[in-house]
Amino acid sequence: MNGCCDSKAVCQAGTTHVACGRNAMACITCQMDQVCTDGVCGAPPCGPDTCVGCCGSDGRCSISGISSACGLGGVACVQCNFNAGCFSGVCKNCSPQSYGCASDGECCSGICSGLTAFQNGTCA
Residues 2-29: what's their mean pLDDT? Predict the structure, then answer.
């Protein structure tokens, strides 16, 4: 038997949110933020429908916007090139440490140390 048994001892497929389970064990109801995959409740797989950031190699959604995990829309995270930062999920050619900016966002927003990063040629 591949499914689970509900509270009335009726066999269920074990693949739904309200009847998740396997090996003829008791069905469980997954939590609101979980899905039933192969009879086990867990986090939904990372992808365009579940992640506004990018999906790391571990399958988790990353919304940090750091240069080592950059991306948007549930695509695979990328590591930005040397001297590039992640701004709004896109790698941009700016390095805040090199141009006196406090963050990638400040540098790539075009405002940095009284001059615009675009005038300095530091943002692509």
Answer: 94
